[in-house]
Design goal:
The complex is a heterotrimer of chains A (about 240), B (about 650) and C (about 250).
Chain A: H1 2-9, H2 11-36, H3 48-62, H4 64-95, H5 110-113, H6 115-139, E1 147-149, E2 152-154, H7 157-164, H8 168-195, H9 201-230
Antiparallel strand pairs in A: 1-2
Chain B: H1 17-24, E1 37-41, H2 45-57, E2 60-64, E3 82-83, H3 95-105, H4 112-132, E4 157-158, H5 164-181, E5 185-188, E6 191-199, E7 202-210, E8 216-220, E9 223-226, H6 247-254, E10 259-260, E11 265-271, E12 294-298, E13 305-306, E14 311-312, E15 324-325, H7 327-331, H8 341-356, E16 365-368, H9 370-396, E17 405-414, E18 417-418, E19 431-433, H10 451-474, H11 484-503, H12 509-524, H13 530-550, H14 562-586, H15 610-613, E20 615-620, E21 629-634
Parallel strand pairs in B: 1-2, 1-9, 2-5, 9-19
Antiparallel strand pairs in B: 3-4, 6-7, 7-8, 10-18, 10-20, 11-17, 12-15, 12-16, 13-14, 16-17, 20-21
Chain C: E1 3-10, E2 17-24, H1 33-46, E3 69-70, E4 73-74, E5 96-100, E6 109-111, E7 114-115, H2 118-125, H3 147-157, H4 164-168, H5 175-186, H6 195-208, H7 219-223, H8 231-246
Parallel strand pairs in C: 1-5
Antiparallel strand pairs in C: 1-2, 3-4, 3-5, 6-7
Helix pairs in contact in C: 2-6, 3-5, 5-6, 5-8, 6-8
The chains are: A mainly alpha (about 240), B alpha+beta (about 650), C alpha+beta (about 250).
Chain lengths: ~240, ~650, ~250
């Protein structure tokens, strides 16, 4: 197993860890967004979005294997992503101990330059998001819309979301975080293909489009939910 | 000293000379090779290939270069290509034809046996380079491409865009890196050789200066190989790199090695002209430009360079054909713009001497692509020369698609060097000299794409065999750096350094170098004559004296000190200049790159004097300022009978 | 033109350094940047002051010896140009120019603008070659090489080892340099035999020398005077990944 350790501790190996864990997280983010967008079925018929979202939540939570399988995978991915980022950042600092008196970026886009700080914002957001809507839903339920199932409370997600997003401060933080996510994805998706060895110039343009397109779609989709709730387009009845 | 110059070339048919020689010379038992240490100075094509190959054979190699990395040696800047008698184009090339062309091109001043061997091993070089991963140009079928170069009648030049030297050097550098990895080559970058240590008449070591710490160090070996390039920087302005110098070979000459044909220098006709006093070096533009560019100067001197105004009198694009002098086409109707390098260079000088130059100081002629653009279209010209045009524009700020290029000749290569025999050994046993540093296989003039060939032939395929003979003869000996010879050599170097640092004069090192360069360029450049050479010989000692009394070398010897490095090199050029001038003065004929105004045909071509000067002139140092002793190696041409060149 | 130069002066590897201000007058626009420094240096030398130490050799953009940060960019602001090929017509009269050495842990400053780039040599020595003994090569036409592969190999082989990529990289990585050699040799049939051992050895050496990682910022490719593109890095990543599958050593 020496070879594996050698590989995974090399700068490229660490980047591969970052790319693979990033790929898992990208998949999750897309799936997460698509699931949540079911809320907009409310526009088709009132109550339809509520029903779909609640059923979707129940489905996820009902299957313990799926739930914990996903949770562990995500936890490992996030941990690996952060670990490789920290190790590489420390190595990069050591690789240039003295900074330039004058330095000019040549091509690095805003996305590139904000990968590290953007990542930190995202981490803070993830913690908040979990406390807010995952842990929060079970620890501090609003009794009116929760019902007792077995010996625990089950809270419909729809009401949780709507109540959560009626506070402007919260929505603002969500929007900022989603913008950070967008930049992070735009560079991250492009970068992970390169890290995994795809460099053929034929695909360069396609990959760039996929990266920016995905980032834009995820940002827009994720921003739409809290904003719609805040302005009363969705969940007015709750 | 009585020295008899024996070439040690085998008698008998030249086709089998090298095979018979290899059969006859001694070889070192494989198990014994590790008992020998060889010093190689220089890491260009010759040095890197020799170091790598000898290390592969099992010798311990100590390799030195003054640059920060072995990859930076100036071979890297060679553009055009490398010749090899592969006959891949099926156009009638052969070892014989390459041999013939090289002897003739050298104006019958090279040693036939060496040249034949060079042509023979040329084919192995290409094989070797391809196997190393050198990315030569290829055709769509995946086979190697060739081009005709330097007026050759066959296409035998292999190339890698305009960076053939770089690619071949990196190939050798990588082979060398592999042997560093194996521990058989010990590499010392930023380390400059400053003296040769001779013991009992044999080369046994060198004194070097660590250019970072300033420390002097001694290294002993069973043999010393110099691959330190040519002396073109004596002109101050040349196409050589800033660091190219004569120091290693000159210090060896001061220790008894003979310096051969120092008057032979090659001037390249298509360089970018000087643009001002500050100019530090000259840049070569590929000779291929003359295939489509037309060379001219204005007929009316008022249209030419006006030094006071700092520009030409009339925009060249506005000068009609009737007022232009296409002097190469006029004087050489058959070859036109494609006459050989030396002829084109002298013609440019003549035009400028007549006051019709078009660049700074009246030193430049037009190379015009107007007609080529008309004929081929801008895209057609760009496809052929786009990268050269871009380079030209970057340096000069002029756009050659719109205004004619300006070119002027510059020193490019030196055919002279330390005298060596067929084994590439100098007259000092144990001192081997390869590549441009030896007096070489090019006679009085080198053909295009032959320098890379010779450097690699020496390093890969000749020296590694012939050095074995010497080593087997002398046997492995203890390496001792404590002998009196080492101490004496180190003291000599240290004294020289101390002296330079103590002068604290008023003039910069470069100002002396510039003055010396101009003197040599004016009197021992493209064309020479007796009076001029005499005048230069009178002036050099005075300049040298002023240098040693008035040069300013700040800083200390015990640290990185670039002024000191330069001063040491210029001090050597100032000594070497005298034998160069004397050699040019003594050689009362014109041949190849050595053109004496007194010796020309009615057509203005070089006129050789085969009765008196069909020899190698090898000079023995007898003290600074003293007249050196001349030793001659007579040359005989059994296979290629001497003829007179004509390009009318 | 007249310029104000702020140049990094540092006596030795362990000495502290600082930016020192010089004014240069009557700069000719046809001068190269290094000739402008030559003129300044000559004026210092005749005053008995130590000139600014900087490196250069061929001065035609191919040896890779020159290189410093000019106004925050390796080799200055002109595209695909080494410091020696940068000319003063690219600057404005009255401009202030900041000149610093390339900075990286693996490129320690020796003096003023001179850095030690021998780490690059050690990366090549770790495996950046094809093992072929002199004399053992088959005929050059024994193997045909696809022209596209040969041309791409050349593009990567054009690296001059100047270190601009490291200097520009926010992580001081040598990925472009190392990747260029990996791709040059890996693109040719002759280089296949050692392809996977080579990439592992070179990456390990690159890490050991203290270079950083690639964050695909692309700074190196813009700074590269020879136009080597990021594909070299992707190719090295791919080869390193593949090598984990191909190699059988533990």
């Amino acid at each position: 197993m020496d070879w594996l350790q050698r590989f995974l501790t090399s700068t490229i190996g660490l980047k591969v860890i970052m790319a693979v864990s990033g790929l898992v997280l990208v998949g999750f983010v897309i799936g997460h967004m698509l699931g949540n967008l079911q809320i907009f079925l409310e526009f088709v018929e009132e109550g339809m979005g509520r029903e779909a979202l609640n059923q979707y939540g129940a489905l996820l939570k009902g299957n313990k294997l799926l739930l914990w399988g996903t949770r562990v995978t995500l936890l490992v991915a996030v941990a690996a992503h952060i670990y490789s980022a920290c190790v590489l950042t420390l190595r990069a600092r050591a690789a240039r101990p003295a900074n330039y008196k004058q330095h000019k970026w040549l091509s690095g886009s805003y996305a590139v330059r904000t990968m590290r700080w953007g990542g930190v914002i995202l981490l803070a957001f993830i913690v908040y998001h979990l406390l807010h809507l995952t842990v929060g839903s079970e620890v501090t339920p609003s009794i009116e819309h929760c019902k007792v199932v077995g010996d625990g409370l089950q809270c419909p997600i729809f009401d949780n979301v709507v109540q959560g997003f009626r506070q402007p401060g919260v929505v603002l933080f969500y929007v900022i975080a989603q913008l950070a996510l967008g930049f992070h994805l735009a560079h991250g998706i492009w970068s992970l293909f390169r890290t995994l060895g795809l460099g053929n110039p034929r695909f360069d343009g396609i990959i760039k489009k996929i990266a920016v397109g995905t980032a834009a779609a995820v940002t827009l989709g994720n921003v739409a939910i809290p904003v719609s709730v805040l302005v009363g387009l969705v969940g007015g009845a709750v | 000293m009585s020295i008899e110059l024996k070439s040690h070339a085998p008698d008998g048919p030249i086709e089998t000379s090298w095979d018979r020689h290899r059969q006859a010379i001694r070889v070192v038992n494989p198990a014994n090779k590790r008992k020998y240490t060889v010093i190689v100075v220089g890491t260009g094509l010759a040095g890197a290939s020799a170091a790598a190959t000898m290390a592969e054979l099992g010798y311990n190699v100590l390799n030195f270069c003054f640059q920060d990395s072995p990859r930076r040696a100036h071979s890297i800047a060679a553009q055009g290509g490398i010749n090899a008698a592969k006959n891949y184009q099926n156009d009638g090339d052969s070892i014989w034809r390459l041999f013939y062309d090289t002897v003739k091109g050298g104006d019958f001043r090279s040693r036939e046996s060496n040249v034949y061997r060079l042509a023979q091993v040329s084919v192995n070089i290409i094989d070797q380079a391809v196997a190393q991963g050198v990315p030569f140009a290829r055709e769509y079928g995946g086979l190697l491409a060739n081009r005709s170069f330097g007026g050759a009648l066959v296409s035998r030049t292999f190339y890698a865009r305009g960076q053939t030297g770089q690619q071949l050097l990196l190939g050798a550098y990588q082979a060398h890196a592999r042997m560093v990895h194996e521990g058989k080559v010990k590499m010392f970058p930023r380390t400059e050789m400053l003296d040769l240590v001779v013991r009992d008449g044999q080369a046994r070591g060198i004194i070097v200066r660590d250019l970072v710490s300033g420390e002097l160090r001694r290294y002993a070996a069973d043999a010393v190989v110099l691959a330190t390039g040519g002396y073109g920087n004596i002109f101050y302005l040349s196409t050589n790199a800033m660091g190219c110098n004569v120091t290693a070979t000159w210090r060896a000459a001061k220790r008894g090695a003979l310096f051969a044909n120092p008057c032979y220098t090659q001037i390249h006709p298509t360089c970018i002209p000087v643009s001002g006093e500050y100019q530090s070096k000259l840049t070569l533009m590929s000779e291929s430009l003359r295939n489509d560019g037309r060379v001219w100067v204005p007929q009316d001197p008022n249209d030419c360079w006006d030094q006071a105004a700092g520009k030409v009198g009339r925009d060249p694009a506005k000068i009609p054909d009737s007022e232009r002098d296409y002097y190469l086409e006029r004087r050489y109707p058959t070859f036109g713009n494609l006459v050989p390098r030396d002829v084109a260079s002298r013609a440019a000088k003549t035009a400028c001497d007549e006051g019709r130059g078009v660049a700074y100081n009246g030193r430049g002629v037009y190379l015009d692509f107007r007609d080529a653009i008309e004929r081929l279209g801008k895209d057609g010209v760009s496809a052929r020369y786009g990268n050269l045009f871009e380079m030209y524009q970057r340096i000069t700020g002029d756009n050659p698609y719109e205004t004619p290029m300006r070119i002027y000749p510059a020193t490019h290569y030196t055919m002279g060097g330390l005298w060596v025999d067929y084994n590439l050994q100098s007259n000092l046993p144990g001192l081997f000299v390869i590549g441009e540093a030896n007096f070489s296989d090019h006679g009085a003039n080198r053909l295009g794409a032959s320098a890379l060939m010779q450097g690699l032939a020496d390093g890969y395929f000749v020296l590694p065999y012939t050095i074995g003979h010497y080593l087997a003869e002398v046997g492995a000996r203890p390496l001792d750096t404590n002998s009196a010879e080492f101490s004496q050599a180190e003291t000599t170097v240290q004294d020289r350094i101390n002296k330079l640092l103590s002068i604290k004069g008023k003039r910069s090192v470069d100002s002396f170098h510039r003055e010396l360069g101009l003197l040599i360029w004016d009197y021992c450049g493209m064309a020479r004559n007796k009076e001029g050479l005499q005048e230069a010989m009178d002036k050099v000692p005075a300049l040298r004296e002023e240098f040693w009394g008035n040069v300013s070398v700040p800083g200390s010897g015990a640290s990185l000190n670039q002024s000191l490095e330069k001063a040491m090199r210029v001090a050597d050029f100032l000594e070497f200049a005298e034998i160069k001038l004397l050699d040019a003065f003594t050689r009362e004929e014109s041949c190849g790159g050595h053109f004496r105004n007194e010796h020309q045909t009615e057509e203005g071509e070089a006129r050789r004097n085969d009765e008196e000067f069909c020899h190698v002139a090898a000079w023995e140092f007898t003290g600074v300022g003293n007249k050196p002793n001349l030793h001659k190696e007579e040359l005989s041409f059994e296979y290629v009978p001497p003829t007179q060149r004509s390009y009318k | 033109m007249n310029l104000t130069l702020k140049i990094w002066r540092q006596q030795g590897p362990d000495a502290p350094g600082e930016l020192v201000t010089y004014s240069v007058n009557d700069v000719n626009e046809d001068m190269s940047f290094l000739e402008m420094l030559d003129v300044l240096n000559e004026s210092l030398e005749v005053k008995g002051e130590e000139p600014i130490a900087f490196e250069s050799d061929c001065r035609e953009g191919i040896c890779g010896a020159c290189g410093c940060m000019i106004n925050g960019q390796p080799h200055g602001h002109k595209d695909r140009t080494t410091t020696c090929q940068l000319h003063m017509r690219e600057f404005r009269d009255g401009e202030t120019v900041v000149i610093e050495p390339f900075r990286a842990e693996a490129f320690p400053v020796l003096k003023d603008l001179i850095v030690d780039r021998s780490s690059f040599d050690r990366i090549i020595q770790s495996g950046g070659y094809i093992s072929v003994r002199t004399g053992s090569a088959p005929d050059a036409h024994a193997v045909q090489v696809n022209k596209q592969d040969a041309d791409e190999a050349f593009d990567k082989a054009a690296c001059i080892g100047c270190g601009a990529c490291v200097a520009a990289c926010p992580n001081a990585a040598a990925m472009l340099f190392t990747g260029a050699k990996v791709m040059h040799l890996g693109n040719l049939p002759q280089g296949q035999v050692e392809r996977y051992e080579r990439v592992g050895a070179m990456v390990a050496k690159m890490d050991e020398e203290g270079f950083g990682h690639c964050s695909n910022a692309g700074e190196c490719a813009v700074a590269c005077p020879k136009g080597i593109d990021l594909r070299a890095i992707a190719r090295m990543n791919k080869d390193l990944l593949l090598s984990q599958l191909k190699l059988r050593s533990k």
